[in-house]
Automatic annotation (TrEMBL):
Pfam families named among the record's database cross-references: SBP_bac_5 (PF00496)
Name under which the protein is recorded: ABC transporter substrate-binding protein
Lineage: Bacteria, Pseudomonadati, Pseudomonadota, Alphaproteobacteria, Hyphomicrobiales
Keywords per UniProt: Signal, Transport
Localization annotation: Periplasm
UniProt-listed InterPro entries: Peptide/Ni-bd, SBP_5, SBP_5_dom
Claim: Secreted is one of the keywords in the record: no
Domain Solute-binding protein family residues, every copy: 71-436
Source organism (scientific name): Nitratireductor rhodophyticola
Family to which this protein belongs: Belongs to the bacterial solute-binding protein 5 family.
């Protein structure tokens, strides 16, 4: 399968502050990594957002993983076979993989992991819940797992990295049927790092698992990860000025990036991604239930200022990044900023004559570039008869509002990138009615025709035919202005010049697998 060259997942933010120890301790290499959003959970059956996946990809390994080129490649499974009817997947596990307590990874652990995920029905379970019945996950022997799916689902292999395997023996010793309390504070995985300390809202510490099955072949592996939670950019700059910062978050201001890059021993990492920055537009509540109002908003956005001045990024014509080259609808026009056309669309709407037309607009609080975009949005829309109520909210509040159509704002600024390396991750997760009620689906598209096309794409094994359906979906979403893509994210991070090996990966936060990175300096 040919996939995109580069990608990302992403998502938006939240906040607090902390200081921590230097980047390099005398007896081990300890890397300080800045994040701006709190870790809500590290339970692999419950993770949902960018930061939680950043933790999970280091604590756990999946059946498969994803390369920087976009290919699904072996991880705990060394190979797999697919039946002629495309419904039975048989995975052969590596013989030498162990959990962080030294016990072997076996087929029973994969069975337990999937059955736990399906039973808890949280986090990534929505991808498997109507596709896999618990009794259809079987251990054929200690190192062979069979998964029988209920129907043909063409992208199935692309979601197998999310089967993050937990140690069933450890879990069965815990209280409760699925050991939920234990995984609130501990890790039980076969990943490169294990959880060693967690001050919620401030810092998370992970220690390297020296016997990690994939090995540590690079010059000097990172022995300890110290994730410091702070949105305060002065704190991030101070960490760099003292030489303590290993890697910044991707959500700093341009001024902060420039200031850190100018320091000795620091560099700026830049990478094109498949993450989109969207204006989510609630299709189900007034006044954004009217396509003409949605189209007016689209015309009233100053795209060039947003992506060239406020938050540098690439042009985005479709809801799907052009990095999914074979599935992208290239024929769509570039986004157009025209207040004249915006006013014409308002006049065509059922709300024409209502003065003012009231909108509420949400964005992540205490995030400078999002506030700037919100202010630009308000000032522009109010010149054509709207009254915009800006609602800066903590990220966890936005996710709460998104669970119900009536509490979801008219418009909201949201980053979304593929959580698995397939266009299906962008289209199903954001626009299918079965996926409604999350921050990623805040547009509440609820379109039976879109649902039917997405369902058809998922059952289409032929890649060319499936890509044609993806293009039809993009065309309808564009015509209905289901939501408004603002830009593709150009990911930027400030990093210590000694940190090497970072590569973009087309899966949410999989590029933060620190077993793929190393320290290239002495001391």
């Amino acid at each position: 399968m040919r996939l995109l060259k580069h990608a990302l997942a992403g998502a938006v933010l939240a906040a607090t502050t902390a200081l921590t120890a230097p980047a390099v301790a005398q007896d081990k290499l300890s890397l300080v990594v800045n994040v701006v959003q709190i870790f809500g959970t590290v339970d692999p059956a419950k993770i949902t957002d960018y930061t939680e996946y950043m933790a999970a990809v280091n604590l756990y390994d999946g059946l498969t993983t994803v390369s920087s080129g976009g290919e699904v490649v072996p991880q705990l499974a060394e190979s797999w076979e697919v039946s002629d009817d495309n419904q039975t997947y048989t995975f052969k596990l590596k013989q030498d993989a162990t959990f962080q307590d030294g016990s072997p990874v076996e087929a029973k652990d994969v069975v337990y992991t999937l059955q736990r995920l399906l039973s808890l029905n949280e986090g990534p379970a929505y991808l498997f819940s109507d596709l896999v019945d618990p009794e259809n996950v079987k251990a054929l022997d200690d190192h062979t797992v069979e998964i029988r799916i209920n129907r043909v689902y063409a992208p199935f292999i692309s979601i197998t990295p999310l089967i993050l395997v937990v140690n069933s023996d450890v879990m069965k010793e815990q209280d409760g049927e699925w050991g939920e309390d234990y995984l609130t504070e501990n890790s039980a995985g076969a990943g490169p790092y294990k959880l060693n300390g967690w001050t919620r809202g401030a810092e998370m510490i992970m220690q390297r698992y020296e016997d990690y099955h994939a090995g540590w072949a690079r010059q000097r592996p990172i022995d300890e990860l110290r994730f410091v939670v702070t949105r305060d950019e002065a704190t991030v700059r101070a960490l760099a000025q003292r030489g303590e910062l290993g890697l910044s978050s991707q959500y700093q201001s341009t001024e902060t990036y420039k200031a850190i890059e100018a320091l000795d021993n620091y560099k700026l990492i830049e990478a094109s991604t498949a993450t989109g920055f969207y204006l989510k537009v609630n299709n189900q509540i007034a006044p954004t239930d009217d396509v003409h109002i949605r189209r007016a908003i689209a015309y009233a956005l100053d795209y060039a200022t947003i992506r060239e001045v406020i938050y540098p990024g690439g042009e985005m014509k479709s809801v799907l990044s052009s990095l999914f080259s074979e599935a992208h609808l290239d024929e769509l026009p570039s986004p157009e900023y025209s207040l004249e056309k915006a006013a014409e669309e308002v006049a065509k709407s059922k709300y024409a004559g209502d003065k003012p037309i009231k909108l509420d607009h949400a964005y992540v609080a205490n995030t400078a570039f999002e506030e700037e975009i919100g202010l630009l949005f308000k000032s522009t829309l109010e010149t054509i008869g709207f009254e915009v109520d800006l609602q800066p909210e903590p990220w966890n509040r936005i996710t709460e509002l998104a669970t119900k159509v009536e509490t979801t704002p008219n418009t909201a600024q949201v980053f979304y990138g593929p959580t698995y390396p397939s266009p299906d991750s962008v289209l199903f997760v954001q626009y299918h009615s079965r996926a409604a009620g999350t921050w990623s689906s805040m547009s509440w598209v609820e379109d039976p025709e879109i649902d039917a096309m997405i369902d058809k794409s998922r059952a289409t094994v032929d890649e060319a035919a499936r890509n044609a359906i993806y293009k039809d979906i993009q065309a309808r979403l564009h015509e209905n202005v289901a939501e408004i893509p603002l830009l593709t994210q150009l990911k930027r991070m400030a990093a210590h010049s000694c940190l090497q090996g970072y590569a973009e990966v087309p899966m949410q936060s999989w590029d933060y697998d620190f077993s793929r990175m190393w320290w290239a300096c002495e001391g």
